[in-house]
Amino acid sequence: TVKTLEWKGNHLDLLDQTRLPLHTEIISCTTCKEVAEAIKRMKVRGAPAIGVTAAYGMVLAADGATGVEKEPFFQHLYRSADELKSTRPTAVNLSWAVDRMLKLAEDHREESVLNLQRILEREADRMAEEDVRVNRKIGENGQALLSDGEVVLTHCNAGALATVDYGTALGVIRAACEHGKGVSVYADETRPYLQGARLTAWELMQSHIPVTLITDNMAGYFMKKGTIDCVVTGADRIASNGDTANKIGTYSVAVLAKENNIPFYVAAPISTIDFSIASGDEIPIEREESEVTMIGETRIAPEGVKAANPAFDITPASYITAVFTEKEVIFPPFLENLKKLKHSIPGKRM
Ligand code: MRU
Asked: 166 partner at 20 to 30 Å CA-CA among 73, 207, 269, 334?
């Protein structure tokens, strides 16, 4: 099977997700700059995947600073960290991963540059392994809430392609399947960038999990008709009160789910929870204007028309039935229960 990302000892291989589903192409990044560029250009995307990719970006930054003194080495690391973090501001996993690498380097300031390079490489490897382990736990915890034969609606791609492997929202589906529950998926196409049509449909077909592709404006129709049993999505950042940033359109799905009495679940690692912010109002939303007027190379709107394109929206906590994490399933009241979760984790950043 093809891997979302793979460290090859001195470079990082990425599956070019802008080419899927028609082409399976691997690109190799040998510098931190190339990694930053790949994240910016959506070659790799999805909150946990860009986090681990950025961690390897830091490894390449460190490796690229061979032969320099400690002070310029650290200056170079700080600059690279800023460059990586500026590529995609909404998903907190990116800055979480970069800061974790920086802090580790700082904690080992007395080591030689050579040792620091090894320490950083080992840490990125650990993060990649952790991601898969964490996703399996999220899946295991989340699948307990799905019954045999359920039809699950998902939005965007929170699958193996959005992580190192297995996925978060799609990890829940995978885990349910491993438990012998015959679940199937309705996948929103996810305009404007079509992660649902291009990536989720492809990934589920590769895994032989039944999937039906629908356009975003069909979700309400199928909910009202009784086709959909629950919604499971990923998250790019969860605030202390449970407000959740995820791909644009997630909020509409959550409102529709509530209106139709369908449970709305969010599947995410604890690293996606940003305890430093009180609510979703503080989450920065990225915008890339051109995606609305073009599909790939094809123009679908008049030349020069004004378009808006917030890439993410915030689903208020009141629309969320539960958050599946690797530790446990969190139910409302989220402010209180996320705080309890935070206190139960040693060393979780505030
Ligand atoms: O713009 P993208 O494709 O990076 O957006 C991805 C999402 O919104 C995912 O749902 C989210 O990152 C969770 S991925 C496990």
From this structure: 334
